Amino acid sequence: MKKMKAMAYAAYGAPEVLQPTETTIPTPKANEVLIKVHAAAVTGSDLMMRQGKPRIGRLYLGMTKPKRTILGYDFAGEVTELGEGVTTFKVGDRVFGGTTTLGSYAEFVCVSVDDVIATMPENLIYEQAGPVCGSAVTVMNFLKGKAGLKPGQKVLINGASGSLGTYAVQIAKQMGAHVTGVSSTGNLAMVQALGADVVIDYTREDFTKNGVLYDVIFDTVGKRSFGDCKRALAPHGLYLSSVLSFPLLLSIIRSSIFGGKKARTSSTGMLPAKERLNYLLEVKEMMKAGKLTTVVDKNYPLSQLAEAHTYVELGHKKGNVVVTVC
């Protein structure tokens, strides 16, 4: 049986738990395709799964140790084999997406055609397509799904230079919003180049105290609470955070009962696959038209996955960190 290289972990913990291994290339089942992975991504969700946090997530991952020993949600690669009954893809198709069964930190992965998978736009390379599903689709869920962002509305993106933030600035502009991006000094020019109408250096200015009101505040990094941001929200403004916490849950409950300003969050991975796929297809059209791009900070080979996780944990990356597999 043919073997492949992968990075696996046998216990929850620090990046060092990710170790190289050799395992059998999987065989696609009915309605699955076998993908030769060219690129994957390292996101905040990948870090939490490696750590086994929050602990409730272990109901899916494994209570005391990982059941799925090869992580990796995002993928971009080439279809090399079809399972029985597959008619929507063919061998040789360049595809990208995300799979909740994980396994993209390997040379090959099997993905159900009913999962979030689509053919890549011809103008994208694998490294640009790899991070899209986990980050850009999440942004679509928040800005379109949760906020229902409308043309002319004022939206502030906190953490505008990160993996979610760089997509959020561009997508909000595509939706017709007036966009303010908040980042550190060194990233302001990049955020402005992505389309932000206004940029704020958080080391020099507190956006919650400058008197400007926003219809939507999207905290992509979980650094500012609903309590902090309330004063910067319009009377019926919406605060969104991609980082779930107990204080945020309390704010969501309270704001649903009292006042016009609301707090919300969402777990994009828990949405039905069809809904996530529809978001991916919208993103694909934006990228095909050259209206949305992937910002790549660093690119690591698969063998240096632990180093990639360590770098992402520092919290200073610009855009996305990509893992080149094949």
Description of the structure:
The protein is built from 10 helices and 15 strands. It is globular. It folds into 2 domains: 3-131 and 294-324, Quinone Oxidoreductase, Chain A, domain 1, CATH 3.90.180.10; 134-268, NAD(P)-binding Rossmann-like Domain (Rossmann fold, 3-Layer(aba) Sandwich), CATH 3.40.50.720. The protein has helices spanning 44-51, 58-61, 126-129, 132-146, 163-174, 188-193, 226-229, 246-257, 273-288, 305-313, and strands at 3-8, 19-24, 32-42, 74-82, 94-98, 108-112, 116-119, 154-158, 178-183, 198-201, 214-219, 233-241, 262-264, 296-301, 320-324. 28% of the residues lie in helices and 28% in strands. It is of the alpha/beta class and 326 residues long. Strand 14 (296-301), helix 10 and strand 15 (320-324) form a beta-alpha-beta unit.
> What spatial form do the alpha-carbon principal axes imply?
globular
Q: What is the CATH class designation of the largest domain?
A: Alpha Beta
Query: pLDDT below 50 for ≥5 consecutive residues: which ranges?
Result: none
- Please give the radius of gyration in angstroms: 20 Å
Total count of helical runs of at least 4 residues: 10
CATH homolog superfamily of the largest domain: Medium-chain alcohol dehydrogenases, catalytic domain
Biggest sheet layout: 7 strands, mixed
Overall pLDDT: 96
What is the structural class? Answer: alpha/beta
Write down the secondary-structure element order. Answer: EEEHHEEEEHHEHEHEEHEHEHEHE
CATH topology (fold) name of the largest domain: Quinone Oxidoreductase, Chain A, domain 1
Termini gap: 19 Å
Number of strands: 15
Fraction of helical residues? 25-40%
The appropriate CATH architecture of the largest domain is Alpha-Beta Complex
Q: How many domains would you count in the coordinates?
A: 2
Beta content: 25-35%
